[in-house]
Specification:
This protein is mainly β. Helices cover 5% and strands 46% of the residues. The protein folds into 2 domains: 4-88, RimM (Elongation Factor Tu (Ef-tu), domain 3, Beta Barrel), CATH 2.40.30; 99-160, PRC-barrel domain (SH3 type barrels, Roll), CATH 2.30.30. The longest helix is centred in the middle third of the chain and has 4 residues, at 71-74. It is elongated and about 60 Å long. The N and C termini lie far apart (45 Å).
Length: 171
Amino acid sequence: MTDYFLVAKVLSVVDKNGFLKIELFTDFPERVNKLSKIFVDFFGDKKELFVEKVRFNKNFWSIKIKNFNSEEECSFLLGKEIYVDSDNIITLPENTYFVHDLIGSEVFRNGNSLGKIVDVLSTPANDVYVIQNSTSEELLIPALISLIENFDKENKVMILKPGEDLWDDED
């Protein structure tokens, strides 16, 4: 079974030739230039589409899908999410992970489970891990390497460094 990874969303048709304006969900926008194929979800089934051309203009990316040559032919793609398969995923620098690697990871501090990562928020300063504990409360932890002792991607376990309290009411 092939794994798919969300990288973008179609926002609008840019011109009469079928270029699509896309919103990227990646910290590596330059990877868009290297895409030769993408996958779009249609009713739970991923369909392969081939990228004809990619361009960057005025702070946004647009792509042209092969054999889609007009606004009318592209209109059904509006709002669709764009995925890549595992063959087209990039290699990340050390101590950098994809969000899908982090989601579901159990987080420990001082030998105690804080809960599981359920989301990663992007903020101007740094990303923030949203951790849901056993009582469904959400804890927010800055995604800083200085706070992480170890992350085991295969077993989905994150160990935070012991140290100063992260919350005012922490014992």
